[in-house]
Amino acid sequence: MSSSKLARMAHVCVLALAALSWGAKTVTYDFNVTWVTANPDGLLERKVVGINGQWPLPVIEVDKGDRLVVNVHNGLGDRGCSIHFHGMFQNGTNEMDGPSMVTQCPILPGSSMTYNFTVNQNGTYWYHCHTDYCYPDGYRQALIVHDSDAYFAHDYDEEFTITVSDWYHELVEDLSTEFMSLYNPTGAEPIPSSFLLNDTINTSIPVKPNSTYLFRLINHGAFVGQYFYIEDHSFEIVEIDGVYTEPTEADMLYISVAQRYAILLKTKDTIDKNYAIVTVADSTLLDKIPSDLQLNNTNWLEYNKNAPHPQAIVNVSDSTDLHPYDDLSLVPYDHMPLLPEPDLEINVTVYMKNLMTGYNYAFLNNITYTAPKVPTLYTVMSSGDLADNPEIYGDFTHSVVLNHNDVVQLVLNNGDTGSHPFHLHGHQFQVIDRSPPYGPGFYDYLNGDPVPYDPNNHTAFPRTPARRDTVVLPPHGYFVIRFVADNPGVWVFHCHIDWHLSSGLAMLMIEAPRQIQERVTIPQEHYDVCRAAGVAFEGNAAANTKDFLDLSGQRSQPGWIPDGFTVHGIVALAFSVLSAICGILSIVIYGMADVKNKQDSVVPLDNPNEVVVEQNATGQTKT
Ligand SMILES: *[C@@H]1O[C@H](CO)[C@@H](O)[C@H](O)[C@H]1NC(C)=O
Ligand SMILES: *[C@@H]1O[C@H](CO)[C@@H](O)[C@H](O)[C@H]1NC(C)=O
Ligand SMILES: *[C@@H]1O[C@H](CO)[C@@H](O)[C@H](O)[C@H]1NC(C)=O
Ligand SMILES: *[C@@H]1O[C@H](CO)[C@@H](O)[C@H](O)[C@H]1NC(C)=O
Ligand SMILES: *[C@@H]1O[C@H](CO)[C@@H](O)[C@H](O)[C@H]1NC(C)=O
Ligand SMILES: *[C@@H]1O[C@H](CO)[C@@H](O)[C@H](O)[C@H]1NC(C)=O
Ligand SMILES: *[C@@H]1O[C@H](CO)[C@@H](O)[C@H](O)[C@H]1NC(C)=O
Ligand SMILES: *[C@@H]1O[C@H](CO)[C@@H](O)[C@H](O)[C@H]1NC(C)=O
Ligand SMILES: *[C@@H]1O[C@H](CO)[C@@H](O)[C@H](O)[C@H]1NC(C)=O
Ligand SMILES: *[C@@H]1O[C@H](CO)[C@@H](O)[C@H](O)[C@H]1NC(C)=O
Ligand SMILES: *[C@@H]1O[C@H](CO)[C@@H](O)[C@H](O)[C@H]1NC(C)=O
Ligand SMILES: *[C@@H]1O[C@H](CO)[C@@H](O)[C@H](O)[C@H]1NC(C)=O
Ligand SMILES: [Cu+2]
């Protein structure tokens, strides 16, 4: 722990506030966000987003109950930014949550913003940019909340934070133009260049024999989930996503992007060997696997520097043959019982479809999230008595108004063949049902029809369901979550694959809008950030301040492909024009050849009527 303590002292100005008798303090970080260069996989040096001239970024560390202040200056010069503190409840401080156009304006180059909130929770979190397309360029790192009262606080000798992630050699701005383009009508996601452990590769974690370690594992990647195990070792899971669990023996985990696990690992009593720490990328997410992409990666639990460091042999033919611990079987340490029958039920289904632009968009029901002209929290704050009316938030933000303290049940069905790790801001939710996410049944689901949640035919809900803030929606399957709307705020519910967030896989919970108006104060500085960015901070989704029910001029999703047109037709038309101009037919063929098993997730190319059927989905399970 001593090295991380040192790093912390170098970065942090700790103001002990004696006035607070229980010892809570204010921890302040000054972040100057600028471009730097780094070469984490040894294959390519590239531009990455650094903080105070450094990358990897500083780990934020606080104690439970502390006030965290982060002064952010955007020194990038060429793009906006923000910070979301992933998993933080921001109870009473919704304005500090970070997503651009939801709770704030983007911080443009030259602008600064102070995030300031108390941390009344425990465990393993992270922070990342939450302005369109920015965290895969390296703008993400761990946020640890230490808790000397944790039930396992005295059961380990030392703790380590270990991140895993995918890594791209190209800048997000270049990847995103390829992703949302006519050349990519199936929405194939950019394939990572490599997979990192703690922002590097081939690394060793030195351990002592006969000792117990707390490993805090975080997938802060942009896209790919990873299996994690240590050869010849098992461990105890003690926390998921900030929720302490009953200590649970396991030997393998599946960590989707944005998920965290804390594990206790007891080391062997001999030092004659080093053991592979193995990560295996979930290849089912990848549309193609380049021959030089290393899916299985070895790092080492190093008992003895001078002993060999053997490469792991991953002897399965497919990553779905691996058997990670099922996170739904974990029992929260506090044994919080199953929440009662819901006051409100929200039913939504994931689809991938093409719109008139020819690009592929991600939908929840028939809406692909399209940012409003005014950050939605600011619409709440400026709308007075109309704040309860969902209409003022526009037709394309997919806003649902929740009553204060209602029990909310959200059913998410998957009409798509990809798995999607969904995250809800401001809450930990109970996961009460889910179709099988991995294992032998995987391909039955993938190759069959979507199986929606059936309220009349489900397994008994657990009595003390697992709680977390990010859960995987399996291909063609479903999950069901419950939470209490006890945290007034505007909270995004979205897929944490950054490509899918950018193509619209998000909706908003407008939780207890009247209570938001009473509790939240927007600092003047946040409005100044809007002024500098030329973004309106009053009015409805269309920035209309006179008549909040008049949404003319709102930002809208592109039009539906009309009857009689096929995506093929539109793409072909656009391409014939393009190719006549530029002679790039080869790229067309390449792009169209990339369809693979994504095929059934797009609008069927030969049956335009299907477009109409899916377009009418209003929220209920697809039948
Ligand atoms: C941020 O860093 C850049 C590059 O080192 C420097 O030019 C700039 O003055 C810094 N800004 C602040 C506010 O510290
Ligand atoms: C990592 O290890 C692999 C396999 O031994 C080796 O080919 C590669 O050069 C190493 N890369 C770095 C940056 O150490
Ligand atoms: C943070 O917020 C607290 C409570 O509102 C306030 O007292 C303090 O001055 C703020 N600190 C900064 C640096 O803005
Ligand atoms: C934090 O941990 C303590 C025990 O150490 C527990 O009593 C408390 O409920 C936890 N807080 C949250 C918000 O999880
Ligand atoms: C992983 O990286 C973080 C941030 O650089 C560092 O604090 C931590 O100690 C590293 N973990 C290990 C096991 O080296
Ligand atoms: C580990 O502990 C056992 C007994 O507690 C002892 O016999 C053994 O020598 C220790 N091993 C090492 C490498 O220190
Ligand atoms: C994979 O290797 C492990 C350890 O060597 C062995 O126990 C297991 O049976 C092997 N699995 C297969 C499918 O060969
Ligand atoms: C990596 O793992 C995959 C299973 O995901 C397997 O098919 C492949 O052979 C493995 N490659 C190596 C080099 O171990
Ligand atoms: C959600 O769907 C279920 C049936 O699947 C239905 O009973 C319920 O009324 C629906 N709820 C909403 C809010 O549409
Ligand atoms: C979505 O469906 C609802 C109900 O059928 C309809 O009122 C709404 O206009 C549709 N939205 C879009 C963007 O097509
Ligand atoms: C209920 O669900 C099970 C498993 O998902 C399925 O095998 C069975 O056919 C379903 N029964 C009915 C009546 O739909
Ligand atoms: C937020 O704070 C209120 C008390 O002000 C509490 O009742 C509620 O449970 C808290 N919600 C969360 C998610 O922390
Ligand atoms: Cu997704």
Automatic annotation (TrEMBL):
Compartments in which it is found: Cell membrane
PANTHER family: IRON TRANSPORT MULTICOPPER OXIDASE FET3 (PTHR11709:SF361), MULTI-COPPER OXIDASE (PTHR11709)
Domain Plastocyanin-like per the UniProt entry, residue ranges: 32-148, 158-305, 369-514
GO BP annotations listed: cellular response to iron ion starvation; reductive iron assimilation
Membrane protein topology class: Single-pass type I membrane protein
Gene Ontology CC entries for this record: high-affinity iron permease complex
Name the UniProt record assigns to this protein: Iron transport multicopper oxidase FET3
Protein family: Belongs to the multicopper oxidase family.
Domain of life, per lineage: Eukaryota
Residues in the signal sequence: 1-23
Annotated TM spans: 565-590
UniProtKB keywords: Cell membrane, Copper, Glycoprotein, Ion transport, Iron, Iron transport, Membrane, Metal-binding, Oxidoreductase, Repeat, Signal, Transmembrane, Transmembrane helix, Transport
Keyword Zinc-finger: no
GO MF: copper ion binding; ferroxidase activity
Predominant subcellular localization, coarse grouping: membrane
Protease listed as a keyword: no
